[in-house]
Structures are given as C-alpha cells and as structure tokens.
C-alpha cells in the first residue's frame, strides 16, 4: 500500500516535548502518550480536515451519545523501528478495513483512507523519536472514533470524532498469564457485536475479569454463549491451543474478533509446515487433552499481547498447569512474527509498510 505524504493534514506543533521525562525501560502498557494527537470531526454528513495538535483533554457535551449509548470503536496497531532507524507499520490496511467494518456495525460513518492511513503516516512521522529500537519496544497506536453528537434520544449520532493517539509500549502483561475458562458469563452472542472492535465489548468483560483477577487469573477465555462448551477468544487476544503437534484456533464468527496477529500466525504456521486447524476446540476436548498429556500449549495472540503463553487454566474449579516444553510453538511463531516486524527477517508476505 502506498502511504502518501499529504498536505491535507494541518499540524499544530507542541511547544515542548515530554519525551525526556519518560522511562522507556519501565513502561506500564498504555499509560504514557506522545506529544501530539490527530483529531478529525464528522459533521453535516462529511469528514472535516484532520488536524494534528498537542495531546490534551477536550470538551464534549455531557449528553454526547458516546456516554449514554456507547457508540465508540477503536483499533490497536504498532509501529516498530529497525536497526537503520526506519519506522514500520504492520499490516495497516487490515486495521483500516476492520475499523470501517466496526463503524458499519455500530452505525457510525466509515473513515477515508486519507484520514486513517495518511493520518497514521503523518502523526507517526512527527513522533518517530518515540519509537524506540530494540526487541520488545514499539509504539502502540490507538485510532478510535466516538459519537460526539448531543441528545439522549437513543439513535445514532450525526456527529463523530476520529482520533489517533500513540503510546510507547513494551509488554502488555506484567508476568505469567493464567486463565479461567468461562462457564457463566459471555463476551458475545450470535448476531451481536463480538466481531466489532466496539468499546463496550471490553467494558462488558471487566466485571468477570475482575472476579478472575481476584482468584489470581489474568484473563478469561470466553466460551460460546449458548452452551459454554466451545473455546472462543480471550477478549484482549485470540487463543491458540496446541494438541500434540497441531495448532487449533477458533474460526472467525460474528462472536470473535478477526485478529490480525491471529491471521498472521496462521499464515506463518502454514508457510512453515506447522499443522493448523481453524475449528472449535471443545472444553471437553481440552480437559481430555490436559488429562492424557496431549495438551502441549495454549497461547494468546493479539497486537498488544503479541504472543502470550498461558501457563495454566482453571475449568470447572479445577486448575490445570500446562507442561514446560522445549520446542514451544508459541516461542517459535512469536520469534518469526517479531523478526518480520522488526525487519530482522525477510518479509515474504509483504506485510510491513515503511513510514
Ligand atoms: C490490541 O491488542 O491492540 C487490543 O486492542 C487489545 C486491547 C485491550 C489492548
């Protein structure tokens, strides 16, 4: 994809930078933001000219629909810096298309490529000093859209704000990841908004995840809402299960996010001859495999989480520890993915886009 240098975006530069106050070695995910943000409003049926300006709070009407009806969507992406100081985006066209799919599902206007892609290019170029070199370092990119039109009547807003904010990042999880398999609460339902990156999908998980956290688990692996018998996703990441030498991940449906890391790992696995199946994993199958020793690994995959091995899971109040193995698929596939992202391995798929 061609990223244009555009004069269609106004830039108002910050008077000073916060970069020297940041401890880049000790970052809590998503807590530090760069000096600028991109803002673009939708009014009178069209998008206005985007502007990049100093990162700051802004005012919106208390009756704005985002507050009352949750009309809000987002994306998660990362930029990486290679050894030559070039900055790269990973598959930005995928995020652009998924963002607009989410917009359609939430009755919001689609953004143009000029706003989303050229907006990314311009703001990341401006903030390139914030993208640090070295394994594990990245600039997490959060494009999002909220309904800013006022009025508490329950219908779609006529005014929206699209924004891009940037946050230097290292790992998402601070330590080991243990999960609970959901048997009561659900993340998504057939015909619902599970496949959209809608803000409410995440808020709906906070309470059951809080209950899991209180028991010492970091995440919940969601199961299908109708029967709680099939593994789906973990909410902040898609889930892969390895039984013997086969990797299995749930097929995309309207209950599961079409993860870009997920689909990239599937492509890498296929390229490298790892047997991969896109099918439902039954909870019973997982328990049988855990008991007979054929369950080798479970890992999550997402932009923020990258590839996160899961060390154990609780199901029906029984805790199962995953075995420690030598030839971990999670480690292997993570290494292959991140080497492409950091431009340390040939990008045979043509995924990387230079800023
Ligand atoms: C991402 O991986 O980018 C996500 O959107 C998940 C988010 C909860 C951090």
From TrEMBL:
Molecular function as annotated in GO: branched-chain-amino-acid transaminase activity
EC numbers for this chain: 2.6.1.42
Pathway: Amino-acid biosynthesis; L-leucine biosynthesis; L-leucine from 3-methyl-2-oxobutanoate: step 4/4; Amino-acid biosynthesis; L-isoleucine biosynthesis; L-isoleucine from 2-oxobutanoate: step 4/4; Amino-acid biosynthesis; L-valine biosynthesis; L-valine from pyruvate: step 4/4
Entry keywords, A to Z: Amino-acid biosynthesis, Aminotransferase, Branched-chain amino acid biosynthesis, Pyridoxal phosphate, Transferase
InterPro entries: Aminotrans_IV (IPR001544), Aminotrans_IV_CS (IPR018300), Aminotransferase-like (IPR036038), B_amino_transII (IPR005786), BCAT-like_C (IPR043132), BCAT-like_N (IPR043131), BCAT_family (IPR033939)
SUPFAM superfamilies named among the record's database cross-references: D-aminoacid aminotransferase-like PLP-dependent enzymes (SSF56752)
CDD domains hit by this protein: BCAT_beta_family
UniProt cofactor(s): pyridoxal 5'-phosphate
Catalytic activities: L-valine + 2-oxoglutarate = 3-methyl-2-oxobutanoate + L-glutamate; L-leucine + 2-oxoglutarate = 4-methyl-2-oxopentanoate + L-glutamate; L-isoleucine + 2-oxoglutarate = (S)-3-methyl-2-oxopentanoate + L-glutamate
Family: Belongs to the class-IV pyridoxal-phosphate-dependent aminotransferase family.
General function of this protein: Acts on leucine, isoleucine and valine.
NCBIfam families: ilvE_II, PRK13357.1
UniProt name for this protein: Branched-chain-amino-acid aminotransferase
Organism of provenance: Flavobacterium paronense
